[in-house]
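Collaborator request, handled under Task 6.
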Amino acid sequence: MAFESNTGLGVNNQYGPRPVGGTMGIERTSGIKNEASVNFDGDALDFLVKIPAGAVVTHVMDEFATGAVSAATVGAVNIAAADGAEANYVAVPLGGDLTITGPTAGSVVVYFLNVA
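C-alpha cells returned to the collaborator:
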C-alpha cells in the first residue's frame, strides 16, 4: 500500500485495498445477469433488498442455507418455484422488496435477469 503526506500537517493518506465484510443485497455478475444474496446469520437485516421492475427471477438457491425456503416473494409475486429451469422462470413486472422466510442460518441466493 502506498502512503502520501502532502498536507504539511503530518497526516498520511492511505491508498489501496480496504477490507470488506460479508455482503447482502444486489451483486452484479455480468451483463443482465444479477444475483441478490441474503445471509441468515441471526442478526436483523438493517436494509431491504429490492429487485428492479421488469426483472425475471431464474433461480432461488437455498443449498447454502440451514432450513428450506418456505416462502420467497418480490413484492406480491411468488418466486419460490424458480429453480433454474427456463420453464419455471418468474417475471416480476413491478419489482419490489425481496422477502425470504424459512432458513435459520446460511445464505440464500436469488439469481435474476435485469431485462427492463
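The cover message to the collaborator said: "DSSP finds no helices and twelve strands in the chain. The mean pLDDT is 79. Please let us know whether this matches your experimental observations."
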